[in-house]
């Protein structure tokens, strides 16, 4: 079993990175269309079965119900179950306040100030229990705005209130533990059946309230293979620039979900289609647009397809590698620019890596624990051309060797010129010391491992790096 999904990389639920805190409603009911009447879909008319629900989530639902509270499974889990998916987490909504929830469970902690929630902890699984939120300001100070953004949202309400503050109709369905029915206040059941993503309320206003919903639309459409309904899709191209105002830490979290959940290729295509890629990754988008041969795009797509494959095989995927891939076009472009200005190779590589990382931080907060290995993956690329024995051994034992090699193999998708390096290093990893020496002996006649055997560019680089002067030879 994987670790609890709640503990997201770099996210701090208490700081408002939690999904629940994303439900922002600035304009009160203005953005929300009038409620459609409640539609109850009885147990025999939907496919959600208790055997597909986490036993811990069921425990929480039953306990709340037995204590006299309303309790529903809600959000992504209901949606995913209806389309036959396997939800990665199960959220519960209730009329019990967080304190009342805590009284029911010994294994419960309250989190978040801006959006107070109860987490019921069962080993590695966390069931999140949220009290119904309303979309109104009751003047109590439980709802606070800062510069047009909602910074505190603890006004509790009814289940209907809770439904309309959610983003898509498909995400606003409630599975009732009383009678195992699905309760639908916004037409979500029909939309899920038609595999359609539709914003609740007036799309333009809902995106203005929270621009990250544009990314969520693309991500959920990619993940579920849903179509984004026309009125929901229409404003995205126009409003895309609003995304640059979203909190960079939250964008980082969203990007991980877009690209590391098994639907990276579809996500990338969706982002490109809706003009969101150029807001999230401006330099990459520019580099892709100016790369006429399409080699960079081929490489990115190959990398994303590989990532999806790894997720499908339950193999680990790393944010550092992902960002190395997504920002590689930007890095190449920066590098070419610097070299054209006469900056010598090694210096240009370092500066290009730093510059791209720094610029990217304006939109997406990439933590250093990922940006440093990302840069290493880039900088190691030039070392694959060097076949001196000492260098080969050193590179093979570099902690980032494997990631850098996998990256080199991807570059092969962009240009065949890397075929020989890929073949050499693929073998080198599996060879014994003697085999490697023999192989290098062939590559470097006379076993001198002298510079004659190394590619010309490497010879120059080596000499330069010994001197402090950056003047060309
Ligand atoms: P996933 O499959 O990625 O978990 P999800 O829909 O469950 O998709 P979460 O981020 O886990 O996404 O959010 C849980 C629920 O909270 C959503 O289903 C939706 O009802 C609500 N929600 C999340 N983000 C927003 C938002 N930005 N605006 C309004 N409601 C939101
Ligand atoms: Mg979820």
Quick tags:
473 residues, alpha+beta, Beta Polymerase, domain 2, cca-adding enzyme, domain 2, two-stranded antiparallel sheet, 48% helix, disordered N terminus, disordered C terminus, binds adenosine-5'-triphosphate, binds magnesium ion
Structural write-up:
The protein is α+β, with helices and mostly antiparallel strands and 473 residues long. The chain folds into two domains: 192 residues, 2-Layer Sandwich (Beta Polymerase, domain 2), CATH 3.30.460; 156 residues, cca-adding enzyme, domain 2, CATH 1.10.3090. It is 48% helix and 10% strand. The protein contains 22 helices and twelve strands. The strands form three sheets. Strands 1-10-9-2-3-6-5-4 form an eight-stranded mixed β-sheet. It is elongated and about 80 Å long. The N terminus and C terminus are likely disordered.
Number of strands: 12
Q: Report the biggest beta sheet as strand number plus sense, adding barrel if it closes.
A: 8 strands, mixed
Distance between the termini: 57 Å
The average pLDDT is 85
Shape: elongated
Strand content: 5-15%
Q: Hetero groups bound?
A: adenosine-5'-triphosphate, magnesium ion
Known CATH architecture of the largest domain: 2-Layer Sandwich
Low-confidence stretches: 1-30, 444-473
The number of helical runs is 22
Query: In which range does the helix fraction lie?
Result: 40-55%
């Amino acid at each position: 079993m994987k670790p609890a999904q709640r503990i997201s990389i770099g996210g701090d639920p208490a700081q408002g990175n939690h999904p629940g805190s994303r439900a922002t409603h600035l304009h009160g009911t203005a953005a929300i269309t009038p409620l459609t009447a409640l539609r109850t879909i009885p147990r025999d008319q939907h496919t959600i079965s208790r055997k597909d629900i986490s036993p811990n989530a069921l425990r929480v639902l039953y306990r709340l119900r037995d204590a006299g509270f309303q309790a529903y499974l809600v959000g992504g889990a209901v949606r995913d179950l209806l389309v036959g998916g396997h939800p990665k987490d199960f959220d519960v909504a209730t009329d019990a306040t967080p304190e009342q929830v805590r009284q029911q469970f010994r294994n419960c902690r309250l989190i978040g100030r801006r959006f107070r929630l109860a987490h019921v902890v069962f080993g590695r699984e966390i069931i999140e229990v949220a009290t119904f939120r309303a979309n109104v300001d009751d003047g109590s100070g439980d709802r606070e705005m800062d510069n047009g953004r909602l910074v505190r949202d603890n006004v509790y309400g009814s289940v209907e209130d809770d439904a309309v503050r959610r983003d898509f109709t498909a995400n606003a369905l409630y599975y009732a533990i009383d009678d195992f029915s699905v309760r639908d206040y916004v037409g979500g059941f029909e939309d899920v059946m038609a595999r359609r993503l539709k914003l609740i309320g007036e799309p333009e206003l809902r995106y203005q309230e929270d621009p990250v919903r544009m990314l969520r639309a693309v991500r959920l459409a990619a993940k579920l293979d849903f179509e984004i309904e026309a009125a929901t899709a229409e404003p995205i191209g126009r409003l895309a620039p609003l995304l640059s105002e979203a909190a960079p830490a939250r964008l980082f979290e969203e990007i991980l979900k877009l690209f590391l959940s098994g639907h990276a290729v579809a996500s990338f295509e969706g982002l490109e289609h809706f003009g969101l890629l150029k807001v999230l990754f401006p330099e990459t988008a520019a580099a892709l647009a100016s790369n006429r041969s399409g080699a960079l795009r081929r490489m990115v797509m190959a990398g994303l397809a590989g990532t999806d494959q790894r997720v499908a095989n339950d193999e680990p995927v790393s944010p550092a590698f992902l960002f190395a891939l997504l920002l590689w076009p930007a890095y190449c472009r920066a590098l070419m620019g610097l070299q054209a200005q006469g900056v010598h190779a090694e210096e240009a590589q370092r500066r290009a890596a730093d510059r791209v990382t720094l610029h990217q931080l304006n939109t997406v907060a990439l933590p250093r624990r990922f940006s440093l290995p990302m840069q290493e993956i880039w900088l190691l690329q030039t070392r694959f051309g060097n076949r001196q024995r000492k260098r080969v051994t050193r590179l093979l034992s570099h902690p980032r060797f494997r990631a850098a090699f996998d990256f080199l193999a991807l570059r092969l998708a962009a240009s065949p010129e890397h075929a020989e390096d890929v073949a050499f290093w693929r073998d080198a990893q599996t060879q014994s010391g003697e085999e490697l020496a023999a192989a290098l002996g062939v590559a470097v006649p006379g076993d001198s491992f002298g510079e004659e055997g190394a590619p010309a560019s490497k010879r120059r680089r080596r000499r330069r790096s010994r001197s402090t002067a950056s003047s060309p030879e």
